[in-house]
Amino acid sequence: MITTFYDHAADISRQEKISMTEALQEVRALGIEGLEVSQNNLLGREDELGNELAYAGLSVSSIPAYFNFGLDSEVEKQAVPTLEAARF
């Protein structure tokens, strides 16, 4: 599977002054099949993001997330929102 970052599609959208849907369709037309979607781009946007990707025929290849274990050492507590969003 050929993948790239969701943020690259967002850059295309801004730079070319096209909608995110159009940018994702351009990404797919280039042969990209999946996107790496950061936790920051996913949480709270599960429906919207899922619809955007489905419309363009793209999937999620990975969801990188960063946790601050210095503030909270409970891995599960920090990971649960991201895991729930990923399941959705």
Percent of residues in helices: 55-70%
Alpha-beta content class:
mainly alpha
Q: What series of H and E elements makes up the topology?
A: EHHEHHEH
Question: Are there runs of 5+ residues with pLDDT below 50, and where?
Answer: none
Total number of domains:
1
Largest sheet: 3 strands, parallel
Q: Quaternary status of these chains?
A: single chain
How large is the count of helical segments?
5
Radius of gyration: 14 Å
Strand arrangement within the widest β-sheet reads 1-2-3
Rounded mean pLDDT is: 90
Describe this structure in words.
The structure is a single chain. By secondary structure, the protein is mainly α. The chain has one domain (3-87). 56% of the residues lie in helices and 11% in strands. It has five helices and three strands; from the N terminus they run βααβααβα. Strands 1-2-3 form a three-stranded parallel beta sheet. Helix 1 (6-16) packs across helix 2 (20-29). It is elongated. It starts with a strand and ends with a helix.
What's the helix and strand layout?
Elements: E1 3-5, H1 6-16, H2 20-29, E2 34-36, H3 39-42, H4 46-56, E3 59-62, H5 75-87
Parallel strand pairs: 1-2, 2-3
List keywords for this structure.
5 helices; 88 residues; 3 strands; three-stranded parallel beta sheet; mainly alpha; elongated
